[in-house]
Design brief:
Helix content: 25-40%
CATH architecture of the largest domain: 3-Layer(aba) Sandwich
Largest sheet: 7 strands, mixed
Low-confidence stretches: none
Number of domains: 2
Bound molecules: 5-O-phosphono-beta-D-ribofuranosylamine
CATH superfamily of the largest domain: Formyl transferase, N-terminal domain
Structural class: alpha/beta
Strand content: 25-35%
Distance between the termini: 13 Å
Radius of gyration: 16 Å
Shape: globular
Length: about 200
């Protein structure tokens, strides 16, 4: 067992980062958040980090709008390494990460996706689930590979889709489970017992 040294990348509210910090502060997760980077200058995730005295900063990812590449990718890797991070946690980071970051942290980049993958990769997946008529939706924490929301799955949690759900009510129900799933996935990694065999992740 070794304390995980996390670098968190986000673009928005940072409620998942908050759930990880809360789990650490309650002694439920053997990890430290070493650095938080956001590609949006006024993202709430930066305010949350500051409240917990976690080093954080804006990362200018221009000229690209949907991916992390080029000088910004190099800078991101440099900052994460300099901060001593050994694991990268994507927490609402609205960009595709490219092979260079993945090679810098092999099998050490995680993402949370608000759907039961492989159903509904990509954006607004809870709306896709609702429009499809699913009776069950959920959340997936997975390793990031070169595809989109396609890496080996660590944890999934399901929630019911109710008849009067709107995209907002369904997303809110999924987010409650996100905040359970991300700390749980990280606990498995911190335990040192997690093994990846092809697509299958074995825990303990
Ligand atoms: C979550 O729904 C997560 O599953 C998705 O982006 C959202 C981020 O929310 N990848 P937050 O910034 O952690 O509150």
């Amino acid at each position: 067992m070794a304390t995980l040294k996390l670098g968190v990348l986000g673009s928005g509210s940072g409620s998942n980062m908050q759930s990880i910090v809360d789990a650490i502060e309650k002694g439920e997760l053997d990890a430290e958040v070493k650095l938080v980077l956001a590609d949006v200058p006024d993202a709430k995730i930066l305010d949350r980090a500051k409240k917990h005295n976690i080093p954080c900063q804006y990362l200018d990812c221009a000229p690209w709008k949907t991916k992390l590449e080029g000088p910004a990718e190099d800078e991101c890797i440099r900052l994460l390494k300099e901060a001593g991070c050994d694991m990268v946690v994507l927490a609402g980071f609205m960009r595709i990460v490219k092979p260079k970051l993945l090679a810098a942290f092999p099998m050490r980049v995680l993402n949370i996706h608000p759907a039961l993958l492989p159903a509904f990769p990509g954006v607004h997946s809870w709306t896709q689930a609702l429009d499809y008529g699913c009776k069950v939706a959920g959340v997936t924490v997975h390793f990031v590979d070169a595809g989109t929301d396609s890496g080996p799955i660590i944890v999934q949690k399901a929630v019911p889709v109710l008849e009067d759900d709107t995209p907002e009510t369904l997303h809110a129900r999924i987010q409650v489970q996100e905040h359970v799933a991300y700390p749980e996935a990280l606990r498995h990694l911190a335990s040192g017992k997690l093994k990846v065999e092809g697509r299958r992740v074995r825990i303990g």
